[in-house]
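User: structure tokens for this one?
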Amino acid sequence: MDETYYLRFPSVLKKALLNRKVVFDAFLICHYEPFFAYRAIDRKKDDGTPINRKDFRSYAELHVDGVFKGRVRKNISFYGCSLFTNLNEMKEKMNCKLPGISDSQKIIAGYVKDSNGPCAVKNENSHVDWWLFEGCDPSSDFEVMS
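Assistant:
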């Protein structure tokens, strides 16, 4: 892949790609039709804060320089935003990982668009990795589910 493409990403992913700590895998899709997906975001039940770019941060963006629990992550998924195309599957996965999801998280739903960045969809489940370009904010394409 052309290194100039890497310059389009937030600094933490851009740095990891340019330093060859991570690479995009064969599942990467750069051009695709918009599709509907779901994401869990951190919000208390009574928190009415509008959806914003912070709701789409990757683990790498949340943990400075891609460091998580003292280790540099070499998995490209660590640098992407995680979504699901199947709501029930997302709820099952999130309930297993985060007990009490209803008290601390809300589910948002909207359209994943290639103008915001490439994605990867693996056929064995409905999970989507979405790597947002620097400066892209997909929040206007998503709504909080009731």
